[in-house]
Design brief:
Elements lengths: L9 E5 L5 H13 L4 E5 L6 H10 L7 E7 L4 H8 L4 E6 L7 H8 L8 E2 L4 H16 L3 H20 L7
Parallel strand pairs: 1-2, 1-3, 3-4, 4-5
Bound molecules: 5-O-phosphono-beta-D-ribofuranose.
Protein name: N5-carboxyaminoimidazole ribonucleotide mutase
Pathway: Purine metabolism; IMP biosynthesis via de novo pathway; 5-amino-1-(5-phospho-D-ribosyl)imidazole-4-carboxylate from 5-amino-1-(5-phospho-D-ribosyl)imidazole (N5-CAIR route): step 2/2
Pfam families: AIRC
Length: about 170
């Protein structure tokens, strides 16, 4: 699938270019599963007006999920969730100072009424956010459902094919 010509269903945003090393694990899963997506740097603190525009236009532009990754004072996912009904999947990026615990607590401790689905700190969280976004879309997109089922089956087969950890 050519990701450039199909309207994106998932927005992947991050607070800084420095978050890309982590967030690329989300886009890798989306690409693998054929989920049309877009990628943007949108900072809650450095580009607040862009954040408002992005969040308020997301639903009308056809986005069905937003994966938002940020580190430290990680306000991006919560602020997006405050301004759109599109489901927001938060990824705590591993910060240098506090190893991502600051990011995790900033994202997960939302007040009742403004949910952010929060994932694990770092690469695993980003990967799982990509898979979760695909799962959200699977009910309405048979191609994504099939790709997700194939991914899960292969993952299981790979483990079963090599049960002895001493073997290379
Ligand atoms: C957050 O501050 C970003 O999400 C990033 O994780 C962190 C550090 O950003 P840089 O100083 O590397 O741009 O807003």
């Amino acid at each position: 699938m050519n990701q450039n010509v199909v309207a994106p269903l998932v927005g992947v945003v991050m607070g800084s270019r420095s978050d890309w090393e982590t967030m690329q694990h989300a886009t890798q899963r989306l690409e693998q599963l054929g989920v049309p997506h877009e990628v943007r740097v949108v900072s809650a603190h450095r580009t607040p007006e862009l954040l408002v525009d992005y969040a308020k236009s997301a639903q009308a532009r056809g986005l069905r999920a937003i994966i938002a990754g940020a580190g430290g004072a990680a306000h991006l996912p919560g602020m997006i969730a405050a301004m759109t009904a599109v489901p927001v999947l938060g990824v705590p990026v591993q910060s240098r100072a506090l190893s991502g615990l600051d990011s995790l607590l900033s994202i997960v401790q939302m007040p009742a009424g403004v949910p952010v689905a929060t994932f694990a700190i770092g690469n695993a969280g980003a990967a799982n956010a990509g898979l979760f976004a695909a799962a959200l879309l699977a009910a309405g997109h048979a191609n994504i459902a099939a790709a997700l089922a194939d991914f899960r089956a292969k993952q299981t087969a790979d483990v079963l094919a090599q049960p002895d950890p001493r073997q290379p």
